[in-house]
Design goal:
With 120 residues, this protein is mainly alpha-helical. Helix 2 (59-67) packs across helix 3. Strands 1-2 form a two-stranded antiparallel ribbon. The chain folds into two domains: 1-30, no CATH class; 32-119, no CATH class. It has helices at 34-56, 59-67, 69-87, 97-119; strands spanning 2-4, 8-10. The longest helix has 23 residues, at 34-56. It is built from four helices and two strands, in the order E-E-H-H-H-H.
Amino acid sequence: MLKFPDNIIVPICIVCHTPCPDGYCPKCEPKGTKIVKHQKICEKLNSLYAVKNAAYGDAFGKTFELLGVISALTRMYDKINRLISLSKGAKENNESFKDSLMDLANYAIMTLIELEKNDS
């Protein structure tokens, strides 16, 4: 955000960092397209993570600490197998194709979190 006289605030494009009214400029990406959609999906991922982490505790982190990266890869592999089954016409049982993709994305992010803990 840029502040101008009279406390006028102008958002900065998240791509090229020039002043623009919507947080991204048309020359970088037309309004309402992929950057904004990505941000909204990430917000949904974070909400889903918060709900599931409250329900399960930090089971993922504890298992990662005990078994290492293979525990994370196993969960991701299970989700990939689920996605393959669904793409071949398997019946959805309380989990859609998109739900499985969201879980897979969260597992990848959770793995990054655990790896960063080990880096510090």
